[in-house]
Every structure is written in C-alpha cells, then in structure tokens.
Amino acid sequence: MSEEQDDITIVNYRFLCAAIIILAFGLRCWGITFGLTQRYHPDESYTLDLVNRMVQADELNPRFFEWGSFYLYLVYAGHWLARLFGHPTTDALLTIIGRSISLVLGTLTVLLTGLCSRELGHDRQTSLLATLFLAISFLHCRCSHYLTIDVAATFWLVLAMYVLLLALRKTGLPLFFLAGLVLGGAIGTKYQTALFALSGLSVIGIHSYTRLRTLLARCCIYAVGIATGFIVTCPYSILFWSGFHESVLYLFSHYQDVTYRNSSDCNFVFFLQNLYLADWSEFLSILSLVGLVLVLRKRRAIDLGLYLFPVLLLIILSLMTSNFMRNLLPILPFLAFLSATASVWLWQGLIRPYLTLATCRRSVLILCLIGFCSLPLYRIAVLDYVLSQPDTRDRAGLWLSENVGPGSRFALEPEFWAYPRLPADSYYRYYMLPKHTVSWYRTNGVDYIITNSISSEAYFVYQNLMPDMRRKYELFFTDLRSNAILCQTFRGTRCPVPINDELPNPDLAIYRLRPSSAN
User: Fold this and answer.
1) The whole model's pTM is what?
2) Which residues are 410's β-sheet partners?
3) pLDDT at residue 103, as a whole number
4) Bridge partners of 463?
5) Which residues in 276-294 are b (16+ Cβ under 10 Å) and which e?
6) Average pLDDT over the chain, rounded to an integer
7) Which of 105, 291, 500, 509 is the most exposed place for a label (fewest CB within 10 A)?
8) DSSP character for 38?
9) DSSP string over 251-278
10) Is 115 in contact with 157 (CB distance < 8 Å)?
11) 289: pLDDT strictly greater than 60
12) Cα-atom radius of gyration of the chain, to the nearest Å?
C-alpha cells in the first residue's frame, strides 16, 4: 500500500510508535527484581557463576564456550561501572545488571522490528502493528526479565538485519561491513544466529546478481565483517582455541545425543505447537499463517531470502535434543512481520470497504486491536504480577529460621533453584524423593522433608512419559502424609499459561518426620 493510502500521518505514527515502546518497556520492567535474594532460574545461575568467576579472577577469559562471550562481557562491563559508583559486587548486583541489559535490549528490539518493517517497504500501519505484536509477545517479554543471552542475541540479530536492509538501499560497502560486524556480535552472543548469515548472503545475491563484481565485493566484505565481529566479541575463541574447540565438539555431540530424546521432545511439531498456542496466542497464530501465504504470493526475492532464516532455525532446533522455548526468540520478529501484514490485508481488503462512516471504522479498528491483543496482554500481566509477588523461598526460609533450630537435617530434591534458605548449621542432602520410603529417611537421620511443586509437577504433568515414576511419587506422598507432620505450606502465585516452567514462587511444603515410637 502506498503512503498516500496510509491512514496514519507521520506525526501520529511517531506518537503511536513511542507509546508502544513505552508499553514494551513497562511490561518488561515490571517484576524485574524477582528472586534477588536467592537464585532461581537455572540458566541465570549458570551465567552468574561465569561472571563471578571472571570478576574474582579479574580476567576476561570466561573459560566457557558453550555459548558466546559477548553477553558475559556486557555484564562484566556493567559490574565495573557499578564499582566506579561505589557499589560492592554481589550476586544481586550482577543479576540486576544482567536483567537490565536484557530489559533495554529487549525494548530496543521492539523498536528495531518496526524500523525493519519500514525498510522492507511496509506502510506505517503494518510497521506499527509489527512493533505492537512483538511488544506484547509473552515469550519475549518473559525472557526480557532474565540474566540470559537469548534476548541480547535477538537484539543483535534484528539490528544486523536492519543495517543490512539499509546497506541494500544505500548500496555503500561500509554498511555491508557494519551489517556483518553486528551479525558477528550476535553470533558471539549465541551461535545459532549464524544461520542468518545464509539469509544475508542470499539477500545480497538476489539484490546484486546482475553485477558479478559488486556481488563478490559485497559478499566478501559482509563475510569479513561477520568474522571480525565474532572475534571482537568472543576473542578467546582464538586466544584460547583449545577450550573453544573442545566446547564446540561437546555441543555437537550433546545436541545429537538421542539418549535424552523422547516422544515429545525436540521435533518440529513440538516447537510449532508451543510457539503458536502458548506464546503467540491463537489470534496471532492464524494471522501469521495468513501473512506467510501473502508473502509467498508476492514472491518478493528479499522476503524469501530473509524468511530463510526462521525456516532453517526451526529445522535445526527440531534436530537438537534441547527443547527450550527461548531458543525460538529470534523467530518472533519475523512472526510479527507476518501477523502485521495479514492484519492490514484483512483490514484494507475485507473490513474497511464495508465501513462507510469514519467513526464506525475507528470503533471497529479499536475492537479488532483489543481482540488481537487481549490474550497476550492478559498473559503478560499475570506473568508480571507473579514476578512481583514475595518469593515463597524467602517466606519459607524466614519460617524455618524462626521455627527450626540449628543442626536440623533436611532432605530436598535436586532442583536447587526451588528450595528455601535453610537455618544456619543445618545439614541437607539432595534426594530423588520417591526412591525411598519415609522410614528410610528417618533411619538415616533426616528430621524434615521439603517438597516443591517444580519436582512433583515434572512427574504428574508428564505422566504419559514416566508412568512408573508418577506412581512412585503418588505412593511416596501417601506415605509422607501418614508418617510425617505437615508443618507449613507456602503456595506461590502461579501463571495460568502453558509456559510456566521458569517462573518463581513454587509451592513449598515442609514436613517433620514423626519419631519412630509414633509408628
């Protein structure tokens, strides 16, 4: 649609775009301080340990290359900046620095999505909707609260795409180098983003295929930029080659190990089901599919080249043994483009022509937007509300310190991120609780057993995959209720959405074992 047909003036466009960015920032900022007193998210804990090691050793070599080093360096730089202002280095400080980086880069990704949409030739309405749809993406919003690499990698990827689109329009070789440089930074954050290099080279080839010398020059300078960006952001991949090479070999062997694969893990259908039904919401799922059909009908070469990346990423992820949903974050901006394209097509072609009155058109448009956005916004609002609630681990830890004496012995499950702070001088062991009876724990000197919903739900939810373990868990809880005293329960606020495995506030229950004479 041409600019003359666009209903949104440039002033209104800028105002609405600013409002969406503010909304995106607010949704990602609310609840960002969750769980600072204790670690919760497993990947956050791992990242925090890596940064702590760099801080304590005062060196830039992370000695870890299962993902890129760029994000670790950003957190490390934030640590030094905080020290200049007199803040002591603590886990809480490093966590809030890392989460703030994710927050800022996540919000900027929303802005870049709109800018990329404009560079792709979309009108203002389409670019605004693409910006809005990423702003209210549950998965992107959730991960923007975390000290993890995924949101940062997505930001650098979308920035690389934007610079590449600028380079194609302005045809300057320095911009192609800059596009490659930024993509190298994305790869230096998360290796899977390297797949976008194929999209970039495809787009350059499609755009310059009639001029062989220009094509070779652009591809070469783009490739040099990628290599330079990766080396700059992950320098010890060269300086510590042995460690880097060993980690890469481990990654290939780990992700191809079918020992951990089961009937529902790591396949194309799994990711599509979770992406569409859980995160992108049912309304936007249909819209993105319609948008894909529209893109294929137009057969624009640049679109086909760019959308090569999400297709390749989905295929690669379906072959891996890892099924973490946050691996799909780089696909979300592309889904935003598709959903926005379909939305404007439906509005312009099927709805607006039948609405003659301007007031009527405006009312129907508002109702459509509310319908599209209500479910994602509801899920995000509940998510942020959950993140802002008092942590059940803190509440349980306070109760234990006030009611349980030092020297007590505890049995806990292996999920370290789900247990409360224990009293000083207490002893604890990790157990897979269904493995033994309550009398066995008593015989081995255990005074208290603490259960958590993270562990139990793993067996009850996936009952079809582990029916024997589910039965053992049911028998164990029956035994526990008969031979132990329930001292206290701490129920967390849950998020009523399908993706709930990485949220804080697990349900905790503290049981005191009865003395032997009571049996």
Assistant:
1) 0.87
2) 428, 448
3) 95
4) none
5) bebbbbebbbebbebbbee
6) 82
7) 500
8) S
9) HHHHHT-GGG--TTSS-HHHHHHIIIII
10) no
11) yes
12) 26
Q: Which residue has the tokens 């934030």?
A: 78
What whole-number distance in Å separates Cα of residue 144 and Cα of residue 380? 12
Token pair of 30 as six digits: 């609310």
Given CA atoms 314, 251, 138, 130 in this order, what sign does their dihedral have? negative
* Exposure on the CB side of residue 61, measured as CA atoms within 13 A: 11
Query: 18: buried, middle or exposed (CB in 10 Å: 19+, 13-18, 0-12)?
Result: exposed
d(CA 178, CA 225): 6
Among 492, 493, 486, residue whose Cα is nearest residue 509: 486
Residue 149 has pLDDT above 90, yes or no: yes
Residues 6+ apart with CB under 8 A from 93: 79, 82, 87
Say how far residue 33 (Cα) sits from the centre of its chain: 17
CA distance 34 to 492: 13
Report how far apart, in Å, the C-alpha atoms of 60 and of each of 63, 138, 178, 233, 240 are: 9, 34, 25, 11, 11
C-alpha 476/C-alpha 184 separation (Å) is 51
Q: How many CA atoms lie within 13 A of 308 on its CB side?
A: 18
| HSE of 423, CA atoms in CB hemisphere, 13 A | 15
Q: How far apart are CA 41 and CA 34, in angstroms?
A: 10
Higher pLDDT, 100 or 170: 100
Q: Which amino acid is at 59?
A: E
- Would you state the pLDDT for residue 38? 74
What Cα–Cα distance (Å) separates residue 329 from each residue in 17, 31, 32, 109, 144? Answer: 22, 20, 19, 11, 10
- Residue 203 region, left (φ>0) first, then alpha (ψ -120 to 50), else beta? alpha
CA distance 339 to 316: 23
Q: For residue 260, name the pLDDT band (cuts at 50, 70, 90).
A: very low
pLDDT tens-place string over residues 369-393: 887 788 888 888 888 888 888 888 8
User: What's the pLDDT at 452?
Assistant: 83
Q: Read out DSSP for 294-320?
A: HHHHHT-HHHHHHTHHHHHHHHHHHHS
d(CA 175, CA 218): 10
> Phi first, then psi: what are they for 378, rounded to 5°?
-60, -45
Strand partners, 451: 509
Burial 424-437, CB ≥16 within 10 A → b, else e: eebeeeebebbebe
What is the residue-wise DSSP string for 128-151? HHHHHHHHT-HHHHHHTTSSSSHH
Q: Which pair of structure tokens corresponds to residue 324?
A: 């973490």
